[in-house]
Amino acid sequence: MQVNRVGLVADPAAPADIARRLDEVRPQGGDDRYAWDIEVVSEPFALDCEDVDTALARLRDQSRQHGWDLVVGLTELPFRAADGRYLLVETDPKQRVAMVSLPALGGLRQHKRAHRAVRSLISGMADSTAQEEHRVALPRLLGRSRLLLGMVLANRPWLLVPGLKSALVAALATGAVATINSTVWMLAGSLSWWRLVVASVLSVAMVVAWVVIDGELWDRPEDDSAEARERSRLYNTSTLVTLTTGVVVCYAALYVVNLAWALFILDPAVMGSYLHASLGYGDLFVLAWFVASAATVGGALGTGLESDEAIRAAAYSKREEERRSRLARERP
Q1: Can you give 69-86 as a three-state secondary structure string?
Q2: Cα separations in angstroms, 171 against 17, 136, 159, 179, 255
Q3: What is the pLDDT of residue 21?
Q4: Are residues 88 and 193 in the same domain?
Q5: Nearest to 297 by CA among 180, 165, 191, 208
Q6: Co-location of 243 and 131 in the same domain
Q7: Which DSSP state fits 232?
Q8: Which of 85, 119, 151 is the last residue of a domain?
Q9: Positive/negative CA dihedral, 78, 83, 84, 85
Q10: Closest CA relative to residue 213, chosen from 304, 145, 102, 127
Q11: What's the pLDDT tens digit per position in 161-186?
């Protein structure tokens, strides 16, 4: 039986977690001619400004340092080929080196897809007859959307809620006070449904803009090249979608809490007699809607945001800064 020493080099955080779950990968179909001794190393090996060849060269250096027979790199970065298409897989079978861009897997069922991709790559490179370079590129039309979905899910937008906890607490306090304010009752009752929708959209947009500005999350091109501009557009789009998803989750939670508070504390009959109008419990849903929008803006903009890793992780550009710093420290 031939034993191959396999190295899995993964970017820190999510890619490293996926790599550690792949250390039990075995040949497909129970092929017992080969055995894989897999070692996982968590450290960055790629930067967004570099081409694929540079990333593969770093993986080759890792392979020589650790004495691996072959190596597969897992990165959360998007990579583009010379023709402009985004890459899923790039291999150099002669050097037994391969790289997988995890966002290009699309995000959904990422672990299962990564498991299949890594097993296929290791099997192919372990075959001594495979000598041709192999590349898998995403389709031109849907490739960017698939990549963007993978980048957003890699950002883990659900983890933004703890990062926004101070703003959320301030918004809850603001909403609790606003719910028992008669002026707020009158304003909520006077607004049409489309004004309430506009208020919701604007409140979410203002908070997203504030987080981007306060956290300095906006990525700017390093130069005037088309590649740098495209990379910044992709990074900024993924950041905005991630933040919007997280803030919408906070908004929905705020609405539910405000509604529960209104149903508990307010009597529509008493409200109606005070406002000289006929009100029912349905009006409390409208009130909670308006209060959620007002409290979102007042609470989030009226308090400073934490210096939280979850917020920084929403931007690929910030994680890129951390990669650069770590690679600079590790270089002799």
Answers
A1: CEEEEEECCCCECCCCCE
A2: 34, 47, 18, 12, 10
A3: 82
A4: no
A5: 208
A6: no
A7: H
A8: 151
A9: negative
A10: 304
A11: 777 777 778 888 888 888 888 788 78
